[in-house]
Input
Amino acid sequence: MRVCCRQFRSKPAALNLRQIAEYQFEQRYNEREAAACLIRVTQDRSRETGLQVTSFGPKFKLSHQRYGNLLAAIDGLLYSGGVTILENVPLAQYTTLGVGGAARWLVETGDEEEILAAVRFARARGVGCFILGGGSNLLVSDEGFAGVVVRVAGGGLEWAEAGDGTASITADAGVEWDAVVRLAVEKNGAGIECLAGIPGSVGGTPVQNVGAYGQEVSQTIVRVRALDLAAEKAVDLMAAECGFGYRRSLFNTTGRGRYAIARVEYRLAIGGAPLLEYRDVKYYFAERGVARPTLVETAAAVREIRARKGMLLVADDADSRSAGSFFKNPVVRVEEISRLAAIAGCRVADVPQFPAGWGFEPEDCVVKLSAAWLIELAGFQKGFAMGRAGLSSKHVLAIVNRGGATAGEIVALRDAVVEGVLARTAVRLEQEPVLLGFAD
Output
């Protein structure tokens, strides 16, 4: 059966898309012809709105849909503000774990206005909207996400010296994080050298307050430019307004889901000494007889240490098919150390512990423990596996996809580790990766 469409005047200004309501459908219709009519109308409209219509793509798949659904498709195009929106896109390809189902809709952009247009598109449909960066700290459910995923990609970075012994790097959210570290150490700017090799993009760094080997990005962040998705406008937040703590911030606590990071400014000390606080980094240079490593050498050492632990993305390394450290290092009261030493049968001094870091004061009397040490104390060894999910063969802190793993298998292994550590030590581990598409 054929689709009949009303003949519209040729001038775009005279076209009203709601005239699509006057399309006359018979009980059955030809999908391709319906799509052709739809494209013809929207292409005319695009001269006024900038709407991009490219092909008989998924957005025009109208089989077995009636008149009302066709109107919904047109409304969706209008709400999208000209952004290219893909449908039913597998998300596993955008995560370092490589697991998870599809996003109902996906937009890839680094443009602030396009991000807001995608948010409006989601609201028009009454579905959620998730901002995706590098996908290095994300676990997507096997069912996927029944909303809009905005993958923030691309952008640039800029180095500027202040004339007071400091310099700043301003980077767009879609920029690869390690590119920022490389620029910093090449310019002799200290403050993030120990964060080398961490996968992901700039936008994720303030959200998780990314840290490693004694450094956290909150120690260098000056301001964050973010999109307030509720108010649909850009805001500039100074570091003190971001609520930074250990692996937390405004963006993953009280403001979770409200903000999309657009740009971050980091302040570095020109000519500053590298931080050599953590044992792994100290040993690396002690073994090589290097007393005063440069920032470039320190960053390179950290990448090598991470690679040994499977914490560096390497194409032919199965252990790098992970979300990095899956568990946070727990912060406990100092008096807990002697109890844990007794459980482990070791001296108090042999229990791996570190300063609690940002957000804690000396009078809090707390320290940070090694989650990896607790996991091994509970009887889990490197390479431990449950189905197609396992612990890294290089480091028990990482859960890896051993090949074809499902999100369900990753979660099952996570739960086994958490329950095992709790039973052995009475310390409850918390996961680092963000969950998407799981029931609350």
